[in-house]
Design brief:
Elements lengths: L8 H4 L2 H18 L3 H19 L29 H20 L10 H13 L5 H8 L6 H11 L1 H16 L9 H15 L4 H10 L2 E2 L7 H4 L11 H4 L5 H12 L19 H8 L5 E4 L14 E4 L8 E5 L5 E5 L21 H13 L3 H14 L19 H13 L4 H9 L29 E2 L2 H12 L9 H15 L17 H9 L1 H8 L5 H9 L3 H12 L6 H15 L7 H11 L2 H4 E2 L1
Antiparallel strand pairs: 1-3, 2-3, 4-5, 6-7
């Protein structure tokens, strides 16, 4: 087992410490192989043993045990300041999902503990694990209403806007190419962070992204379109077809904001969406053909990023139409026409007299009026919190990918629209629901992959690179996380992401789900910033825990668990770790050394790396 290789560690430590990490690793193979799921299984096993003692002994049965629906074991209550819509919509979610569980003869998982909930909600809402200080604060709230209060606290935290800006910047620009990292990406993130801090309506944010114009150092929102203009049109055809083909942005707009992958209809009728024809792709594309970019894009962002300007050239594509080729070689013309909505077989056509930015304003109106606009964002948000949406993937509504609970999706989308596309309201509804409070342990009634769509247990999720970075800084109390070190933090984060997400995305610039890799593990084990924070005896989590508790091993271990896993250790874990500490101290009298090794092991455990 590899040990930490920060400067000074290997030179100043003996092989006994590596052996000590191996011993600790043996413990954490048990503790963290399945993360929080393992702890829940231990509890379930203990209960089963206790119940078995109270029952008369019988011969073992050969048939599988029968499961019946059980009520939720803990009632959640809203704090006094909660708005009425939260009670209304969480009841809707609870009732719809309970009906689905009953219909499918599924037994839902039990609720997670308060500590597990704090960690989950912190990761999902503000993009990092909770701090021990925050956990102590949360535990002071009345038990019945503390989870509701914690959700509201997190929504008011400054990290809320930063986290959701990170998510949306990656969805809008991806993590690859010139726009995937660097100034263009960072400027978009800052613009979005202001929007989320103001809790601006989602539909208004989308409208700004689709209709934006100007210089990208003054109006960063223009980078959404500028990042996806596609191939340039041959010079001789530009007066008719515009400066760029605008193919990538056509598909990205409908995929992000309608959950419809029209790129599958670019060259032929959609193979899985019977109503989506090739002409519809080009009908949407025609709205964008007067978009013009001033400024040349560098081949690599290392070459330096110039200021780009997005404007609309009314002198080209005077007729709002494009020509496209069928598979049989026939070339057809398609006027600017948006996708059909509801029972309409034909979408709305743009007024042929519209020019310049007015074309994109019309596109934005049709987009927001479409029946899938609200369901698409609700489905995407649901996917963030539950690890999958009502459809999987979340951005591909089609005939063969129908929502698992269409009634609930429809009701949530209608309420979301009714309450003014308020992102914080939607988050409150989701996080106060019974389903969001369930643990990830499967039982024989819901242990198949197809059961995930019923949301009777939580799906474990890998942290995103940004969540992992912020959580490591939080857990270790690294100096980059101190107030006043924003520049250092930004630099460190950029270096981290450059290494961790290199080559992410596909050939169309789409975001790819991030999963932990060997590269990630090596970076965590060998990262100088993290290991320095672990090794220091004057600052950092280990140093502070030892200073506060001295030789009280149980208290120090408790502090390290809270800082990393956001929960106290079990009595069994404390006994096992303390016993192994005795072996380490035989050859190494350094008081900090065993705790540093434990802290390192905790940070590299599955329980830390997963959002469960």
């Amino acid at each position: 087992m590899a040990h930490v290789t920060a400067q000074g560690w290997l030179g100043g430590r003996r092989s006994s410490l590596i052996y000590g990490v191996c011993l600790l690793g043996g413990l954490f193979l048990v503790m963290a192989a399945d993360g929080a799921a393992q702890n829940a299984k231990d509890k379930a096993t203990s209960k089963e043993v206790k119940d078995a003692k109270d029952e008369p002994k019988t011969e073992p049965k050969t048939e599988a045990p029968k499961y019946t629906r059980i009520p939720v074991t803990k009632k959640l209550a809203l704090h006094k300041g909660a708005e009425k819509d939260v009670a209304e919509m969480t009841r809707t979610i609870n009732d719809r999902l309970a009906a689905a569980w009953k219909e499918n003869n599924v037994v839902h998982a039990d609720f997670v503990s308060d500590h597990e909930f704090f960690r989950r909600a912190s990761l999902d809402i503000i993009g990092r694990i909770a701090t021990p200080e925050e956990i102590k604060k949360y535990l002071k709230y009345p038990e019945a209403t503390r989870r509701s209060q914690v959700i509201d606290d997190l929504l008011e935290a400054p990290e809320y806007a930063r986290h959701w800006a990170n998510l949306w910047t990656n969805w809008l620009l991806s993590r690859t190419g010139v726009f995937g990292r660097g100034r263009y990406h960072d400027d978009m993130q800052k613009w979005l962070q202001k929007e989320f801090a103001l809790n601006r309506r989602y539909d208004k944010i989308v409208e700004s992204l689709v209709t934006a114009a100007g210089k990208n150092d003054e109006h960063p929102e223009v980078n959404f379109i500028l990042a996806h203009v596609g191939e340039p049109v041959p010079a001789g055809d530009r007066s008719k077809d515009g400066q760029f083909e605008m193919v990538p942005i056509t598909s990205r707009i409908t995929r992000l904001f309608l959950g419809t992958q029209v790129q599958c209809a670019q060259c032929h009728d959609h193979p899985f969406h019977g109503e989506l024809k090739q002409e519809m792709f080009w009908g949407v594309n025609a709205f964008l053909r007067q978009v013009h970019r001033d400024g040349n894009l560098p081949m690599r962002r290392q070459d330096g990023l110039v200021t780009l300007t997005l404007r609309d050239d009314e002198g080209v594509n005077s007729e709002p139409a494009v020509y496209y080729e069928k598979r049989n070689g026939v070339v057809l013309k398609k006027r600017a026409t948006f996708l059909p909505s509801g029972e309409d077989k034909f979408g709305p056509s743009m007024d042929k007299d519209l020019k310049g930015k007015n074309r994109r304003e019309a596109l934005a109106r049709y987009l927001m009026d479409h029946e899938k606009f609200a369901p698409a964002i609700v489905n995407r948000m649901w996917g963030v919190f539950f690890g999958r949406g009502f459809t999987n993937p979340v951005d591909d509504f089609n005939d063969q990918n129908q929502p698992s609970n269409p009634e609930l999706l429809t009701e949530l989308a209608a309420a979301y629209k009714h309450y003014g596309y308020d992102q914080k309201k939607l988050i409150r509804w989701i996080c106060n629901s019974n389903a969001y409070n369930l643990n990830c342990v499967a039982n024989p009634t819901n242990d198949k992959q197809e059961h995930e769509a019923l949301f009777s247990r939580m799906v474990m999720k890998s942290m995103s690179p940004e969540q992992l970075f912020e959580s490591l800084i939080t857990a270790t109390k690294a100096e980059a996380g101190d107030k006043g070190n924003e520049a250092e933090r930004a630099k460190l984060k950029a270096e981290w992401l450059d290494k961790l997400v290199a080559q992410f995305g596909d050939d169309e610039g789409n975001e790819v789900n991030f999963n932990g890799t060997v590269v990630q593990a090596l970076m965590m084990m060998n990262g100088n910033e993290i290991n320095t924070a672990i090794a220091r005896k004057d600052k950092g989590t280990v140093a502070l825990a030892v200073a506060a508790n001295g030789r009280n091993s149980a208290a120090v271990i408790n502090d390290l668990f809270l800082a990393t896993l956001n929960r106290p250790p079990t009595a069994k874990e404390t006994r096992s770790i303390t016993a192994k500490f005795d072996l380490l101290r035989i050859k190494d009298k350094d008081l900090h050394a065993p705790y540093q090794d434990l802290f390192w092991a905790l940070l590299n455990s599955n329980e830390f790396l997963l959002n469960h």
